[in-house]
Write a structure and sequence with these properties.
Rossmann fold, OB fold (Dihydrolipoamide Acetyltransferase, E2P), six-stranded mixed β-sheet, Transp-assoc_OB_typ2, Sugar ABC transporter ATP-binding protein, ABC-type maltose transporter activity
């Protein structure tokens, strides 16, 4: 396995459209790195440049101690798992797995041993004599992973490999792939992985670190906990988390060192500790709070925002309340047992953001101005 480095990597297409804007990223040896972002953010383009399937127009790609900019895909030391599996339809599973080794002219005993080893690890021994058309989606994806694994590449590349599977099977395959990565590391053969997805659940549950991308730029690279708890900007804050973070235009003021937030004609004081973290004193901000970090208070409670319920989504263990406050919509996730009866549309409720969980963002730069000493 090897470390992967992207240095000032750029991609410009004909007509001058710039898809990737000089990004820098290091994937450590044995690390599981996830590239995530909305459609069109250039995560797949970046992966294809690493693979050599897209030419780069600036910067450098380094795998281990080699610069691979001008090296053909087959000699870069990578193996790629595609969204559509890309299995050879006329070959049985065992031949699909071993194709790369046979192409390299490896001895037959080595090929047979490697095929058995990979099929055992992925639990597909019973499928070796089947054709791809006889496989389920999950089985075909495991064969595709096995075909990459058997080559023992320096870097594994996954391009949205689970997007064609149903929700239950995606969840199962997430566990299989992450377990495989951990197993290989424990066996002394760590796999360096770059995994592309648009699904933040995959990103948060699979990645050692996550690279959040937007329009060809890297917005933040961090472990899942840091991304969730300390988003660097409002884009990351709104993209990571379900339901997404409430992001509301507000006014920050301070009186006696205690910050206050005003939304429309309502103002609440927030924790004194937040004042020590702020990089600005007063002014317009983007106020951020996750739906899980909002308390629903009894009527008439002081220092709360009050609003009207527009939608109440009962999910069994919790209720998602959509609350209209001065023309803005807050979402609050509340445990079902908090209520004797589930609130209804049109009811007035009071909510209090948990002070230490509040984030404030600069409206112009989108940067988080409330991280401070967190």
């Amino acid at each position: 396995m090897a470390e992967l480095q992207l240095k000032s990597l750029e991609k410009t297409y004909g007509g001058g459209f710039k898809a990737v804007h000089g990004i820098d990223l290091t994937v450590q040896e044995g690390e599981f790195m996830v590239l995530v972002g909305p459609s069109g953010c250039a995560k797949s383009t970046t992966l294809r440049m690493i693979a050599g399937l897209e030419t780069i127009t600036g910067g450098e790609i380094r795998i281990g101690n080699r610069v691979v900019n001008d090296i053909v895909p087959g000699k870069r030391g990578i193996a790629m798992v595609f969204q559509n599996y890309a299995l050879y339809p006329h070959m049985k599973v065992r031949n699909n797995l071993s194709f790369g080794l046979r192409l390299k002219g490896r001895p037959k005993p080595e090929i047979e041993g490697a095929t058995q080893d990979v099929s055992r690890v992925l639990e597909i021994e019973a499928l070796l004599d089947r054709l791809p058309k006889q496989l389920s989606g999950g089985q075909a994806q495991r064969v595709a992973v096995g075909r990459a694994l058997i080559k023992q590449p320096e870097v594994f590349l996954f391009d949205e490999p689970l997007s064609n599977l149903d929700a239950k099977l995606r969840a199962s395959m997430r566990v299989r792939i992450t377990d495989l990565h951990k197993r290989l590391k424990s066996e002394g053969r760590p796999a360096t992985v770059v995994y592309v997805t648009h699904d933040q659940v995959e990103a948060m549950t699979m990645g050692d670190r996550i690279c959040v991308m937007r329009e060809g730029h890297i917005m933040q690279v961090a472990d899942p906990t840091t991304l969730y708890e300390q988003p660097a900007n409002s884009f990351v804050a709104g993209f990571i988390g379900m339901p997404e973070m409430n992001l509301i235009d507000a006014i920050l003021t301070t009186a006696g060192g205690i910050p206050s937030i005003t939304i429309g004609d309502q103002t609440i004081a927030i924790s004194e500790g937040l004042g020590d973290r702020l990089s600005i004193g007063e002014g317009p901000v983007k106020f951020g709070i996750r739906p899980q970090h909002v308390d629903v208070c009894p009527g008439g409670t002081e220092n709360c925002f009050s609003g009207t319920i527009t939608t109440a989504e009962f999910l069994g263990h919790e209720v998602n309340l959509h609350i209209r406050i001065n023309g803005e919509t807050f979402v609050a996730v509340v445990p079902s047992d908090h209520f004797s009866t589930i609130p209804r549309r049109g009811e007035v409720v009071a909510i209090r953001p948990i002070g230490q969980r509040i984030h404030l963002f600069d409206r112009l730069t989108e940067e988080n101005i409330s991280l401070g000493s967190l």
